[in-house]
């Protein structure tokens, strides 16, 4: 009788637990600069875990506003550290879940081949119509771009030629459509498999701007969600890291 | 209460909307006139093109304008030939985009007003030897006045409320392309909800008052017309 009870309780607990372990959907809000890398990582995680990952890409600022007002995300991958910090202060983050999943790299890019010679010469020459950058008020890549310009003493001389994207995707769009000759974009947008995909670029030495540390958090509402926790664990695994590196990011 | 950059955005928005309204009345009137009176088979396709911005997502319109006005697009090639450079990220680029975007809001009220006049008053005027310009200014304009006023108000307010298109082609340049709607978006994105609320409240009150005056004006006019 006792065995029977034990057996049935095992069966019962498997029935209860299994749906929450397998084939669960994880809703993740992801900063747009991490789009390509996250698609690859999510695909691998889905294959290995059997869970499904539903990705939403956008600007971190908008995600914070949405999460504060009950958006059904479980995981948030920000483009910076301030926004996860703000959510943490608002008590919306699961304790000790925050970590830096990637350190972003900045590149000066042109859609035209041979326009930039992997150095700052063309930027210094002033021989371009516009230079696109992400709005530094909103995007950490914009802050980094301003630091590079200031470091080169070009802030004042290029100011007239700035055009600002609301986020790094829009900045990329301004350059890729040829409306701006040059632009400061995320290296991850122009790099795949460790190679620059098109145009010409200057991969800016990392000592010219403060590190763009991007933090991820598990949201309070998903504190006990095994699949969501699993995705964050996977994000820290060696497999995920090698994907992250292939898009030009560094990790801790 | 408002920061200098908020005030700059409000002033810019006012300049953009005024310029666009004037241009739209100038080009929208002949289009509306033609659409109201033509029997051409082109009437359907032209009406559809004019009405497209009503249904297209502004981001789609903005994205194609960014490409078309860019250095490789056909508008961009034209403006470069004329020595004007390219239009995105400039005040005039915003004007061109807004003219496309608000066109149906100006053409349709004027077209309806002209259609409502019908042929009869124009024929009478013609028998009195009024030339076509004369007929337009002495018959059509006074009779279709409510339509023109509605068109101007809708064109103006719709341009003030424009966001998606500006976001795509603006480049967020203070005094050039950073209009109120973009400024509000920036405040929200930067988590500056206080400033966002202030500007948004101003926008809601302004839009409400304008629409209120439009509808009271229309009501008065129908009463007058019925008398």
By DSSP (H or I, 4+ residues per run), the number of helices of chain A equals 11
**CATH topology label of the largest domain in chain A:** D-Maltodextrin-Binding Protein, domain 2
CATH architecture of chain B: Orthogonal Bundle
Structural class, judged by helices and strands of chain B? mainly alpha
Which fold name corresponds to the CATH topology of chain B?
MetI-like fold
Low-confidence stretches of chain B: none
CATH H level of the largest domain in chain A: which superfamily?
Answer: Periplasmic binding protein-like II
Q: What series of H and E elements makes up the topology of chain A?
A: HEHEHEHEEHEHHEHEHEEEEHH
Q: Class of the largest domain in chain A in CATH?
A: Alpha Beta
Explain this structure to me?
The complex is a heterodimer of chains A (252) and B (227). The relative contact order of chain A is 0.20. Chain A has eleven helices and twelve strands. The radius of gyration of chain A is 21 Å and the shape is elongated. Chain A has two domains: 2-103 and 214-246, 3-Layer(aba) Sandwich (D-Maltodextrin-Binding Protein, domain 2); 106-203, 3-Layer(aba) Sandwich (D-Maltodextrin-Binding Protein, domain 2). The longest helix of chain A is centred in the first third of the chain and has 20 residues, at 2-21. In chain A, helix 2 (35-49) crosses helix 10. Helices cover 42% and strands 22% of the residues of chain A. Chain B has one domain (4-39, 48-226): Orthogonal Bundle (MetI-like fold), CATH 1.10.3720.10. Chain B is built from eleven helices and no strands. Chain B has helices at residues 4-37, 43-55, 58-69, 74-81, 91-117, 120-127, 132-143, 145-160, 164-169, 180-189, 193-226. The mean pLDDT of chain B is 90. Chains A and B meet through helix 3, strand 7 and helix 8 of A and helix 3 and helix 10 of B.
Features:
heterodimer; A: 252 residues; alpha/beta; D-Maltodextrin-Binding Protein, domain 2; 2 domains; 5-stranded mixed β-sheet; B: 227 residues; mainly alpha; MetI-like fold; 11 helices; globular
């Amino acid at each position: 009788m006792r065995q029977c009870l034990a057996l049935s309780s095992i069966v019962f607990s498997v029935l209860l637990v299994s749906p929450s372990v397998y084939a669960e959907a994880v809703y993740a809000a992801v900063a747009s600069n991490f789009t390509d890398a996250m698609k690859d990582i999510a695909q691998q995680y889905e294959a290995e875990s059997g869970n499904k990952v539903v990705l939403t890409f956008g600007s971190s600022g908008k995600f914070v506003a949405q999460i504060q007002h009950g958006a059904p995300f479980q995981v948030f991958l920000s483009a910076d550290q301030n926004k996860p910090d703000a959510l943490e202060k608002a008590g919306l983050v699961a304790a000790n879940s925050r970590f830096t999943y990637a350190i972003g790299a900045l590149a000066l890019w042109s859609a035209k081949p041979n326009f930039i010679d992997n150095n700052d010469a063309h930027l210094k020459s002033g021989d371009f119509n516009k230079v696109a950058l992400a709005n530094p008020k909103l995007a950490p890549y914009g802050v980094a771009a301003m630091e590079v310009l200031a470091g080169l003493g070009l802030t004042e001389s290029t100011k007239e030629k700035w055009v600002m994207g609301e986020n790094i995707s829009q900045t990329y769009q301004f350059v890729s459509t040829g409306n701006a000759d040059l632009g400061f974009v995320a290296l991850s947008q122009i790099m795949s498999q460790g190679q620059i995909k098109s145009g010409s670029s200057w991969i800016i030495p990392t000592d010219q701007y403060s590190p763009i540390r991007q933090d991820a958090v598990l949201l309070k509402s998903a504190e006990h969600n095994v699949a969501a926790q699993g995705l964050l664990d996977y994000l820290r695994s060696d497999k995920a890291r090698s994907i992250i590196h292939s898009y030009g990011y560094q990790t801790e | 209460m408002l920061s200098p950059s908020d005030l700059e955005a409000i002033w810019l928005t006012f300049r953009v909307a005024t310029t666009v309204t004037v241009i739209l009345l100038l080009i929208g009137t002949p289009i509306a006139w033609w659409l109201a009176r033509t029997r051409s088979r082109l009437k359907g396709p032209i009406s559809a093109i004019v009405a497209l911005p009503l249904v297209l997502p502004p981001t789609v319109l903005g994205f194609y304008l960014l490409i078309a006005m860019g250095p490789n697009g056909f508008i961009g090639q034209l403006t470069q030939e004329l020595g004007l450079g390219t239009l995105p990220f400039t005040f005039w680029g915003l004007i061109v985009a807004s003219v496309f975007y608000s066109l149906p809001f100006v053409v349709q009220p004027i077209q309806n007003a002209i259609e409502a006049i019908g042929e009869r008053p124009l024929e009478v005027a013609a028998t009195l030897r009024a030339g076509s310009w004369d007929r337009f200014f002495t018959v059509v304009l006074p009779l279709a006045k409510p339509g023109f006023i509605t068109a101007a108000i809708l064109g103006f307010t719709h341009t003030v409320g424009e966001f998606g298109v500006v976001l795509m082609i603006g480049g967020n340049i203070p005094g050039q392309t950073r209009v109120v709607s973009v400024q509000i978006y920036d405040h929200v994105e930067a988590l500056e909800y206080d400033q966002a609320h202030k500007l948004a409240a101003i926008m809601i009150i302004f839009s409400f008052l304008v629409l209120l005056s439009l509808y009271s004006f229309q009501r008065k006019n129908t009463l007058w017309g019925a008398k």
